[in-house]
């Protein structure tokens, strides 16, 4: 049997910028796209990359492309299901990234498959204890619309994955566990992984900002997780505490979380047998609307011979 290595994808931030402005964090109150401090972003990205390498992961770096600055958020690339990789069907401003994701994933020995439904990968579909969580919301044409107030317009963003995606994936790539469909209602939390995070041994525990979900979805999570549910207060939710990266290495559960989370939340996570590591990726959150988890796609174990050691 071939030796295995735990691999993740990260996207080189050399061309990181706000181009599409496709979520509420990318624009100011007037609707103008924010400007990235690229030097700061590169320093923060390198620190996260080096941290993951020091933990023993193989970090496969996607080369930069000035046409596609969104490559820094590869959690939207797709999701691995057993030995298949289901590619996302991204919003128009990011669909040009897909050939790159396919090339990089297939270079690591995984076969890619496409979907007809709108879907944004492990950002909206991920395991949590005995189930998968599948998040979706209303898909809208992104645009400015008039409103009462100042400024007299607002930006409509909508969400990223549609319910049909889960049905299509289950039909073609049967899961080994039930999938809970959940509905997002707050555009600031436009992906499930911005308001939900499973962690701890066997990912049994769940961080959740329930206000970002429809009431019936919040009730479903309360019923499923009970005492294993940790409700996030607004301050921690706004820090994108749920956009953390979980991994289990050598029997240890680790949660890489964004710097700025509350002491109370950190203690709650630690009390569930998880080691907390905090990292500053604030430039990616404040300007691009993605924190730690958005910057990492988890490919799981792959044969070591597939790895390019120069990555």
Characterization of this structure:
- With 311 residues, this protein is α/β, with parallel strands linked by helices.
- The protein has one domain (4-137, 152-306): L-arginine/glycine Amidinotransferase, Chain A (5-stranded Propeller).
- It has helices at residues 38-54, 98-106, 163-172, 215-225, 234-238, 263-270, 282-288, and strands spanning 4-11, 58-62, 78-81, 84-87, 111-113, 125-128, 131-136, 143-146, 153-156, 178-183, 196-199, 205-208, 229-231, 245-249, 252-258, 275-279, 297-303.
- It starts with a strand and ends in an 8-residue tail after the last strand.
Low-confidence residue ranges: none
Based on Cα principal axes, name the global outline: globular
Order of helices and strands: EHEEEHEEEEEHEEEHEHEEHEHE
How would you sum up the major sheet? 3 strands, mixed
Termini Cα gap? 24 Å
Briefly note the structural class of the backbone.
alpha/beta
Counted up, domains total 1
């Amino acid at each position: 049997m071939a030796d295995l290595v735990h691999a993740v994808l990260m996207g080189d931030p050399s061309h990181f910028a706000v181009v599409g402005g496709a979520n509420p964090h990318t624009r100011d109150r007037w609707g103008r796209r924010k400007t990235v401090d690229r030097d700061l972003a590169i320093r923060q990205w390198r620190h996260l990359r080096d941290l993951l390498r020091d933990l023993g992961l193989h970090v496969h770096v996607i080369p930069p492309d000035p046409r596609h600055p969104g490559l820094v958020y590869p959690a939207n690339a797709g999701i691995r299901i057993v030995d298949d990789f289901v590619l996302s069907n991204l919003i128009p401003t990011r669909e040009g990234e897909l050939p790159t994701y396919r090339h990089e994933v297939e270079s690591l020995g995984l076969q890619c498959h496409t979907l007809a439904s709108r879907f944004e990968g492990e950002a909206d579909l991920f395991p949590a204890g005995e189930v998968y969580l599948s998040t979706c919301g209303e898909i809208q044409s992104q645009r400015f619309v008039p409103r009462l107030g100042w400024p007299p317009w607002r930006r409509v963003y909508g969400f990223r994955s549609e319910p049909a995606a889960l049905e299509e994936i289950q039909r073609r790539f049967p899961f080994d566990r039930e999938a809970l469909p959940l509905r997002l209602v707050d555009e600031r939390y436009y992906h499930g992984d911005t308001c939900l995070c499973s962690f701890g041994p066997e990912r049994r525990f769940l961080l959740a900002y329930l206000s970002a979900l429809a009431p019936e979805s919040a009730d479903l999570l309360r019923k499923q997780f009970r005492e294993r549910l940790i409700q996030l207060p607004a301050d921690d939710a706004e820090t994108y505490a749920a956009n953390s990266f979980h991994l289990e290495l050598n029997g240890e559960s680790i949660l890489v979380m964004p710097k700025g989370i509350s002491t109370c939340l950190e203690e709650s996570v630690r009390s569930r047998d998880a080691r907390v590591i905090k990292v500053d990726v604030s430039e990616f959150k404040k300007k691009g609307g993605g924190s730690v988890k958005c910057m990492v796609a988890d490919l799981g174990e792959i044969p070591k011979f597939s790895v390019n050691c120069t990555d």
